[in-house]
Amino acid sequence: MSETEPTGNGWRRPRVGHFIGGDWTESASGRSYLNRSPWSGETLSEVAAGDVEDADRAVTAAHSAFDGWAGTLPHRRQRVFLRAADILERRHDEVLAALAAETGCGRVFGGVQLDFATRLLRQAAQLAYRPAGELLPSDVEGTRAMAVRRPVGVVAAIAPWNASLTLAGRAIIGPLALGNTVVLKPSEDAPHTGGALWAEILHEAGLPAGALNVVTHAPGEAGGIGDALLSSPLVKRINFTGSTATGRRLAEKAGRHLKRMVLQLSGQNPLIVAGDADLDYAVNAATYGAFVHQGQVCMCARRVYVERPLAEEFAERFAARAAALPTGDPSDPATVVGPVINEWALALLDRRVREAVELGARVLAGGVPRPPCYPATVLADVPDEAEIAQGETFGPVVVLETVDSAERAVARANTSDLGLVASVITGDRSRGLRLASSLDVGIVHVNDQPVNDEPHMPFGGVKDTGWGRFGLEFAAEEFCELQWITVRDQDRDFPL
Ligand code: ADP
């Protein structure tokens, strides 16, 4: 069940159960945990602490629902997604408040998430009418050959907390719209906005029982459910959004079961400012790109490279902007930097910034925790061996580096093991395009900052950022099987 009780601040406190076969249900074990707000510490919801048994029930329900949903007429399938978009719009203010309470997500990024999720649903509605394959010429006389795209069956979706609404949404909506059924495992830090909420909305919109199932679990207990989803022969595909460390472990296990995955993992995204860039624009772009949602977006700029002629002035203005960003309560519309997700994340940021400083980095802005927030922080002269210069540090900390040329910045950026997104700001668009094509990443934005997504675009990375692409136009490649069918309208000769 997902019961709600008014708490007087616009946000209703849910009791979050699993959603299996169209019903809200407790864990088989009867266990639950309390999910708390990262800002206030208040208990937001009591959440079912699921396990293997619950995952198995969800997979069975999804499997049972598959034939019915895959065979549902296109206009009925389409209507579910159009209705769901209307419901999400109707619940706009409440969802915004829930995102702030559950994940510390402020008004700006909350708005980005709601806008994306609504467009995702409306665009997904048209997938029901997507051509289901192609006729292919054959060299065998009297043969009609075709490539027929058909849904795979049960898709498992493992989603993170940070952009809970959109990242759970894109993990389930494309697969569902193509006729698959889904088991969603949200993050323990976002069981409502990244899980139960989607079940409520799609259920109200008329999605048949069992087409979407949601299984939640207590902190630190994802492994059992993850293993159950990976090893079940009924689960045909997995999509995972999260850290490279977890994704690598899951991919190793998936390999054992020869199971295909879409993996969207960590990024260490460069923003390159060329010497001919408009300084004000570049500072504004870097401020948004590094600090939106307190740097807890996989696309956030982690490294800003500035060509030498602009470097000093850029550093001064960028640091001043960062230092002035309002920090605090995510439900206050003026707040830009809200709380980080939990104490562990705060401690990690603090440790990595201190380590960089010990190794010689200069703090141009921020650098001292303000629990439960970490302020927008700009570091310069960070040595390559510092942890913060490597891998992904999820939070509002950015490394600033002066370079002799943007080409040098590209070479520096390409040494990273990660390759999600990059951006380049320059007055010369042709040069921007040349730089874009030499960047070893899945996505590049010229004259923008890196935090961008649209539901139909090919979203994903290269190298240790994973493989496969989210995006409705590309979902069919990931979540459908292509079947080659031939029909002979005359007998043929056999050599034996
Ligand atoms: P983040 O640092 O963003 O939380 P994680 O990779 O730890 O990144 O988490 C992303 C998602 O992966 C969450 O839903 C989390 O519960 C899940 N997860 C973590 N460990 C496992 C695991 N062993 N098996 C399956 N899912 C896991």
TrEMBL record:
InterPro entries, per database record: Ald_DH/histidinol_DH (IPR016161), Ald_DH_C (IPR016163), Ald_DH_CS_CYS (IPR016160), Ald_DH_N (IPR016162), Aldehyde_DH_dom (IPR015590)
SUPFAM superfamilies: ALDH-like
Keyword tags: NAD, Oxidoreductase
One Pfam family linked to the record: Aldedh
Source taxon at top rank: Bacteria
UniProt KW Hydrolase keyword: no
Domain named Aldehyde dehydrogenase: residues: 24-485
Protein family: Belongs to the aldehyde dehydrogenase family.
Name under which the protein is recorded: Aldehyde dehydrogenase family protein
Organism of derivation: Actinomadura spongiicola
